[in-house]
Structures are given as structure tokens and as C-alpha cells.
Amino acid sequence: AGLVGVLLSGATADGAAGLATIKASGGVALCQDPKTAEDATLPRAAIAATALDWIGSPRAIGMKLSEFSP
User: Fold this and answer.
1) DSSP symbols for 12-53
2) Strand order, beta sheet including 28-32
3) Which one-letter DSSP state was computed for residue 56?
4) Which residues on adjacent β-strands are paired with residue 54?
5) Cα–Cα distance between 10 and 38 in angstroms, integer?
6) 2-59, pLDDT tens digit by residue?
7) 3 in helix, strand or coil?
8) Neighbours of 1 (CB within 10 A)
9) In the chain, what is the straight-line distance between the N-terminal and C-terminal CA atoms, in Å?
10) Which of 15, 57, 63 is nearest to 35 (CA)?
11) Residues with Cβ < 8 Å from 58, sequence gap 6 or more?
12) Residues pairing with 5 in the sheet
């Protein structure tokens, strides 16, 4: 993947639009599972805003990112 966006816990929904833009540009969109977030506002907004490629815990996201390394 050339472009990868990751959203983690957050109190506002501002990052959801950026992640949707990354996805619309052919990138990969990863998001923290709201169940694991300290504040689930941002992850929930991202889930509602775009078709995510993957949702998981921060640790699992780190492992998933390693799959994109050359």
C-alpha cells in the first residue's frame, strides 16, 4: 500500500474526513476499535464515514502495519 491512514482514540471527529480522503485516493484505512479507545468519538466517526479496511486494537494495528513494510 502506498498510502496508509491510521486513526486512534480521539474526542473529536475531525480525523474521520481525512481518513475518508485517504481511502478515496486508493489508500488503506485502519482504525482503532471503539471498544479499546479511551475516547471512542473519533473511531466511531471514522466507521460511520468510510468503508475501513481494518479495525483493531492499537497493538493489533501496529502488527497490521508491519504487513505493509517492504
Assistant:
1) SSHHHHHHHHHHHTT-EEEEE-GGG-SS-HHHHHHHHHS--S
2) 4-7, 28-32, 54-56
3) E
4) 30
5) 8
6) 889 999 988 888 888 899 899 999 999 999 999 999 999 999 999 998 889 999 999 9
7) coil
8) 13
9) 10
10) 57
11) 8, 32, 36
12) 29
User: How many alpha carbons lie under 13 Å from residue 63 in its C-beta half-sphere?
Assistant: 6
pLDDT at 1 over 80: no
Amino acid letter, residue 12: T
Return the residue matching grid coordinates 480522503. 21
Q: What is the pTM of this model?
A: 0.88
Q: What is the reported pLDDT for 12? A: 86
CA–CA distance, 38 with 69 (Å, rounded to integer): 28
Cα(69)–Cα(35) distance, integer angstroms:
27
Nearest to 61 by CA among 40, 39, 37, 32: 32
